[in-house]
Structure formats: structure tokens, C-alpha cells
Amino acid sequence: MAESVKVLPEEIQDIIDVHEWDMRTREGVQRFRDLKAKSLPSVALDEDLMYESLIPMQEELIAEIRRRYEEKNQGV
């Protein structure tokens, strides 16, 4: 899943912050629990668990990132 995010177009990379947690650490396990995830891979956007147990199509992920970015930056 992390690879799917790393290969997003540069224009998308410029508007996101990527945080990756290792499930072999306490921090990673706690983050997994905080998101109420049930399986891997999982992707959260703005603290919302969006994709779990699947890797979204790149177009779908880009559209959701853009939608959230535009929503946050309206009127800025």
C-alpha cells in the first residue's frame, strides 16, 4: 500500500503528508488500533480509515485526495 502512495503524481505528492507506521512497533500497533483498522493494508486520509484490505485504483485515490484538499482549502 505504501508503494501505491509513493508513486502518485508529483502534483499530488506536493499536497499530502505521508506517514507510514511499522506494525512491528508499539507506535504502529497503537496507530492501527486508533484508526480501528481490522486488517492490512490500510490507508487513512485525514484520520478517516478509507481503504482496508485493498489497494485502491490510483485514479480513485487521487480523486479522493483532491476532493479533500479542495474541501479544506475553499476560500483560502
Could you name the key traits of this structure?
alpha+beta; two-stranded antiparallel ribbon; 2 strands; 43% helix; 12% strand; globular
Description of the structure:
It is a single chain. The chain has 76 residues and is an alpha+beta fold. The chain has one domain (2-72). The chain is built from 4 helices and 2 strands. It has helices spanning 2-6, 10-13, 26-34, 58-72, and strands spanning 42-45, 48-52. Strands 1-2 form a two-stranded antiparallel ribbon. A hairpin with a 2-residue loop joins strand 1 and strand 2. The longest helix is centred in the C-terminal third of the chain and has 15 residues, at 58-72. The chain starts with a helix and ends with a helix. The model has no long low-confidence stretch (mean pLDDT 92).
Q: List unreliable stretches of 5+ residues.
A: none
Average pLDDT reading: 92
- Whole-number total of structural domains: 1
Beta content comes to 5-15%
Tell me, briefly, the overall form. globular
Strands of the widest sheet, in order across it, are: 1-2
Helix content: 40-55%
How many β-strand runs? 2
Supply Rg.
Answer: 13 Å
End-to-end separation in angstroms reads 31 Å
Largest sheet, in brief, is: 2 strands, antiparallel
Short overview:
This protein has 76 residues and is an alpha+beta fold. It has helices at residues 2-6, 10-13, 26-34, 58-72, and strands spanning 42-45, 48-52. A two-stranded antiparallel ribbon has the order 1-2.
